[in-house]
Design a protein that fits this description.
about 210 residues; mainly beta; 5-stranded mixed β-sheet; 4-stranded antiparallel β-sheet; globular
Length: about 210
């Protein structure tokens, strides 16, 4: 199936029509796909990702793939990556956002990370703890990165205005693993089965963790 983006920002395929975020770029075989250009056949998700503000992974983040780790900035639509379950997932879309001036860096080996991870303030991290079970009746919850900031394990990072944050849409997969730390592949949270904390819950969770010195 051939899909074309119109100059009005509406993608149409048969009876399917949906709006596309004009600020978003999608990459096909290393080429940005923008209005007026063709979307490849394998980009068959029924919508283009419009990722929330303050989410995304720094371009230098190494993503596990069947052929070894690859910087997320070098990943294109159709590439294969390894998701948090250890399965191979196909990249359906790659979305980018300007990083802004401030992000957060999660420092390895905290959280089970195998690399330092620079992410947007609101990007979700999957946390498994007794506190999650106590507060929310769930073994694991997804917490925005800002709620974990303690200036030791999670620190502020200043970024240049030219830097970019990347998000991946992986079909049925919703998380990536960096070591044993699971992180959202994007901030859309459409298919995740894990409870996502709202801002008030995240603040309460962070306070409880601080009091318990976790």
């Amino acid at each position: 199936m051939r899909r074309v983006l119109s100059v009005y920002g509406i993608e149409t395929s048969g009876s399917v029509s949906y709006e596309v975020d004009a600020a978003m770029k999608r990459r096909s075989n290393g080429i940005d796909v923008v209005f007026g250009q063709t979307v490849p056949d394998f980009a068959n998700e029924p919508f283009a990702p419009v990722v929330p503000e303050n989410t995304g992974l720094h371009g230098h983040t190494r993503i596990p793939t069947p052929n070894g780790s690859v910087a997320i900035q070098d990943i294109a639509i159709g590439d294969k990556v390894i998701d948090a379950s250890g399965k191979t997932a196909t990249v359906r879309h790659v979305a980018t956002r300007a990083a802004g001036k401030t992000a957060l860096t999660l420092r390895a080996p905290y959280f089970g990370l195998d690399q330092d991870l620079t992410i947007g303030l609101s990007h979700g991290i999957k946390i498994t703890s007794e506190i999650a079970e106590y507060m929310f009746g769930e073994d694991s919850v997804i917490v925005p990165a800002w709620a974990l900031k303690d200036d030791i394990k999670v620190r502020h990072t200043e970024l240049a205005s030219t830097e970019t944050l990347y998000s991946l849409q992986l079909g049925q997969s919703t998380e990536l693993a960096f070591g044993s730390c699971e992180v959202e592949s994007n901030g859309m949270r459409i298919r995740t089965e894990t409870r996502v904390l709202n801002d008030a819950e995240a603040r309460s969770f962070a306070l409880e963790c601080k009091e318990m010195r976790i």
